[in-house]
Amino acid sequence: MIHLHLVFVGKTAFPEMDQAIQRYLDRLRHYASVEVHLVRAEKIAERSREKTVMDREGERILKLVGSRDVLVALDRHGAQLDSEGLAAYLEQLKRDGSPEVWMAIGGPVGHSKKILERANRTLALSRMTFPHDLTRLILVEQLYRAFTILKGEPYHR
Fold first, then answer.
1. Which of 16, 48, 59, 124 is the most exposed place for a label (fewest CB within 10 A)?
2. Residue 80 is part of which domain span?
């Protein structure tokens, strides 16, 4: 069984969004072990350099991920998969015996170079830019959808 680790930078700003995310996490847990890890976000001031912010947040993420774990970075420059493609990727990870899979959404300025270099795969949910809270919801919904596809359940229709 795959153990999914979802890494989010900072807290969710809207309680309604948290409730929606939790709803899909509860559904997702019927198919996989899922843990959410919140990484402290760097404060972004006018004088903050984006690279410094990304590097500090990236270091916090990398401290969580084991050397043998699979890291998937969600980044707008990553490969785009449809829902069936995500399901196939999860099935491949399962077949390959990759039990610890980390999926990381970067902070407001994105992922550091170190995260992107360490990532086994970089995926984009869209070429559009979404608020981070919405990105979290889209990710957990798509993971739930992928598992229902693998089980042949009607949710995907």
1. 16
2. 3-156
- The number of folded domains in the chain is 1
From residue 100, alpha-carbon distances to 3, 6, 13, 127 in Å are 5, 11, 28, 27
Query: Which one, of 101, 111, 99, lies nearest residue 61 by Cα?
Result: 111
Query: Which one, of 53, 47, 149, 15, lies nearest residue 141 by Cα?
Result: 149
What is the end-to-end Cα distance of the chain in Å, rounded?
Answer: 25
φ and ψ at residue 103, rounded to 5 degrees: -120, 115
0.85 exceeded by the pTM? yes
Average pLDDT, the chain: 94
pLDDT of amino acid 47: 66
What CATH number did the domain enclosing 23 receive?
A: 3.40.1280.10
The mean pLDDT of 25-54, rounded to a whole number, is 91
